[in-house]
Amino acid sequence: MASASVAFDEAPVLPAALEELAGPPKQEFAPVTRQERINSLDVLRGFALMGILLMNITSFGLPGWAYAVPLGTVLPVFSGPHAKANTIAWMLRWVLAEGKMRALFSMLFGAGVVLLTERAERRGGGDRVADIFLRRNMWLVLIGALHGYLVWNGDILFWYGVVGLLFLYPMRKLQAKTLIKAAGWLLVAWVLVAGVGRYLGTYFTYKKGVDAITAVHAGKTLTQDQKDAIGAKVKLDQQWWHSTKDVDEDLAKHKSYGKAFAADAKGEYDAATAVYVAFADVLIFMLLGMGLYKNGFLIGKQPTAFYVRTAVIGCMIAIPLGGAACIESWRSGFEAVRSNAWLTIPYDICRVSGALANAAIVLLVVRAGLMKALTRRVAAVGQMALSNYLLTSITCRFLFVWGPTHWYGYVEYYKLYYVVAGVWVVNLLWSPLWLSRFQFGPVEWLWRSLTYWHRQPMRLRAEQRVTVEA
Fold first, then answer.
1. Which tens digits make up the pLDDT trace of 300-338?
2. What is the mean pLDDT of the chain?
3. What pTM did the predictor assign?
4. Cβ neighbours for 212, distance < 8 A, ≥ 6 positions apart
5. How many other CB atoms are there within 10 angstroms of residue 62's CB atom?
6. Hey, where are the domains in the chain?
7. Own/partner long-range contacts of 125-129 (Cβ < 8 Å, ≥24 apart)
8. CA of 273: how far to CAs of 294, 314, 349, 390, 394, in Å?
């Protein structure tokens, strides 16, 4: 079979979804052609999207409190016959992917804002670009809200749309250095607040509680503040180590779609009103992505040596620091204060260094022309990122909660990653197959049609079709 050619920064890779900001059918503001796609961005987007499931799978298959550290589960994770396999899976997930894939995906969204608005403006879009951008993100907010409330409360699309509406359009003209510096200062502030600040809050809460308990054992009469300190410590303990009663109640809430919807709606509301998430998980990395697109990093315009250095330095920071955090937490028996210190304080340092290292490694693979058959399929996943994101949520919710399998809470931790592998296979098979016949992924087509309030062409013409090597 003939295969589609792959260039590093061009993308006649697949018959291709058109760009996210392709304009209405006017000559001066037309959709981009297949040759205008940037293959590196498609591959990175597909890679990040698939990688996100390495973390999210725990939220699909286990109680929400088990996301960071799987404690308080039906099947024990760090003890029992599968303790070794579970512990290795948890450590690898934390060191190689936790936060890093989500950060990279946000960076690519930011890069897409600059890419798409620049292309539209070059085509004479003028003031209409702002109008299209506004409507595009308003629809994304709605899609995210529907996904969060009706499917799964781990949605990120809502905040992508909100941050896009509030910040990204006016920032698209800033210089690359300015964007990267802004992201850097915001990251420093976030590390101090969410890393150091959160740890200190936990530390002093526990210290006051322990001191009050010591006073009780010494036969002293407690003040009201000391009583409150004990209550606060107990509450933190319960958030870290959940009781059998908590587990049973959580399982009961996930017996069917109706019960899960009722239980998860509050979680989605809490997430949608937690403004800090927008800055930690979204805005910082979107600004960084805008800067890294402008300086050529995300589209392969930097020298090979630069990508090698980025990969090496990033891995030298993220892997040892993340590994030490996991090991020390595990050695402590996941004692709350010590685990919070190790897992929280260096989290964002590992996250940004790991995300940049992962991006550099993927870009080096694409630049070298390695694994072309695989990268073509990953690029197809990236071109249909929105459809694949929603398909993944629906598939996992069906397997774990809605469908007859009902695996929620009853799958060994390491076996959750068998499900991840299965979903990846689906992503890699159906994406190029779909794009061999259609212009867009199904949800991308709907999004564009709603954005322009005009039905977009869906099927490829015969001369546009590209056969993809199996």
1. 999 999 999 999 999 999 999 999 999 999 999 998 888
2. 86
3. 0.88
4. 222, 226, 227, 229, 230, 233
5. 25
6. 27-297+371-464
7. 125/23, 125/28, 125/29, 128/23, 128/29, 129/21
8. 32, 33, 26, 22, 24
